């Protein structure tokens, strides 16, 4: 996915870690992605591509067990898994709307792909300067965050105050807690070993064209084009049915070759 030059900062995460509150505050000072994810950038499974060489990203992460509780508590689990499985949907089915948290934990299958999402951003497809910060440490990391985003430090006093997290593992049965720990415990330990915040800079940059040819970006691109072509049908644009069938054929061929 390529994005507008107008966007200066993208805030992203695998969800359930306060992404929206940070975007809502930051948009007062920088052009950001949409807090309601209308542009599809808030939880994109790979970093987006931009022709803006000044683009910066902020990636928030936290305990994946708590993130899961948060998503189910707000009934976001179905649509969120659809978003995060954008590149995995031919391998993994999204969480059904009717599924309960206890059943999801007992199933033992990560249908959010949290770990893959994180390392796509942290290592595999890092393509712009990115500030990685733990959700529960963000209030202790404001000075380096403001330096990174080039926001005057006098604005720190305007930053929202910490609030008690609504989601808690203690509200779950012991069995569900144990099942979630079995599912995400190893990944959570990997995250715990990371610094509270870290600025990561890509070793080298590639052209947007070359990056689009990478399979993950091609997958996102095809999904975007497929969505846009469906909109063409609603607008009754001539030949749109032929075009959308071509995109379907390309996608089906790609899935068969994986």
Task: Give a description of the structure.
With 258 residues, the protein is of the alpha/beta class. It folds into two domains: 2-200, Rossmann fold (3-Layer(aba) Sandwich), CATH 3.40.50; 214-256. It is built from ten helices and six strands, in the order ββαββααααβααβααα. The protein has helices at 19-26, 64-73, 77-84, 101-107, 114-124, 142-149, 174-192, 208-212, 215-234, 240-256; strands at residues 2-3, 9-13, 49-50, 56-61, 130-134, 197-200. α4 crosses α7 (174-192) and α9 runs antiparallel to α10 (240-256).
In short:
With 258 residues, this protein is an alpha/beta fold.
- Compute the separation of the termini in Å: 20 Å
Radius of gyration: 19 Å
Can you list the strand order of the major beta sheet?
2-4-5-6
How many domains? The number is 2
Number of strands: 6
| Main pleated sheet | 4 strands, mixed
Mean pLDDT: 83
Percent range for helical residues?
A: 40-55%
User: What is the architecture of the largest domain at the second tier of CATH?
Assistant: 3-Layer(aba) Sandwich
Organism: Algoriphagus machipongonensis
Protein name: Sulfotransferase domain-containing protein
Topology:
Layout: E1 2-3, E2 9-13, H1 19-26, E3 49-50, E4 56-61, H2 64-73, H3 77-84, H4 101-107, H5 114-124, E5 130-134, H6 142-149, H7 174-192, E6 197-200, H8 208-212, H9 215-234, H10 240-256
Parallel strand pairs: 1-3, 2-4, 4-5
Antiparallel strand pairs: 5-6
Defining key terms:
10 helices; 9% strand; two-stranded parallel sheet; 44% helix; 2 domains; 258 residues; Rossmann fold; 6 strands; single chain
